[in-house]
Amino acid sequence: MRKLAIVLALASTALASPALARDKSWYVGIEGGGMIVEDIDYDVTGTRTGVATVDHDYGYDVDGVMGYDFGGFRLETEVGYRRATVDGYSSTTLTNTGIGAGTVPAGSYSYAGGSTSALSFMLNGLLDFGADDGIQGFVGGGVGVARVKANYALNNRADFLNDSDTVFAWQALAGIRAPLTDHIDATLKYRFFNAENVKLVDVANNTHDGRFRSHSLLGGVAYNFGEPAAPPPPPPPPP
């Protein structure tokens, strides 16, 4: 009877949920997914004045993060890159189509090409909700800088705009994460990204003043470097 009690005690300990290596530990992760860029409305000033609008196809968004889990709150650094191709271009003023290529009148051009991208360096703060041994939700945001680059063309000979600008950026984040092992988590995240006051100069020295805004749905994995807590000792056998 005494041997049976010891065996049952050891079995109950082995079946207990393991403590996960999240709280009080460093972690790294990678994420990627699809992105939608809001139409960019540029205020055009210089030799010509007007408004130019750039429409985009679906794009992609990838990032890498490294942070520390304080237990209920995480602080992380993030490097991200997002890019979407141009689907159409419209303007209320003349557009110089490139060096030596002449100008086109105001109007909409569905055959426009090129892309818009943003390389960002962010500092994020995240609040976690839920137990470590199950699905956990989180919300938060971040601030940093972004290098927004645009290259737009109305023909296959030259870009009429190919320039970049580095500006302040911020983002809002929400998602869920679930443990796959003691050290590895799977994540699903929504990101709203915003970079204001982007100023770009075209081949005719006109300034295009706009903002870059995107919505992304990202999946990823994260590795936690902490060690799981040791399981409690089995209860003593009954007398």
UniProtKB/TrEMBL annotation:
UniProt keyword Membrane, yes or no: no
Stretch forming the signal peptide: 1-21
InterPro entries per the UniProt record, alphabetical: Msp4_OMP-like, OMP/PagP_B-barrel
Keyword Flavoprotein: no
Msp4/OMP-like domain residues: 62-193
Keywords associated with the record: Cell projection, Cilium, Flagellum, Signal
Name listed for the protein in its UniProt record: Flagellar motor protein MotB
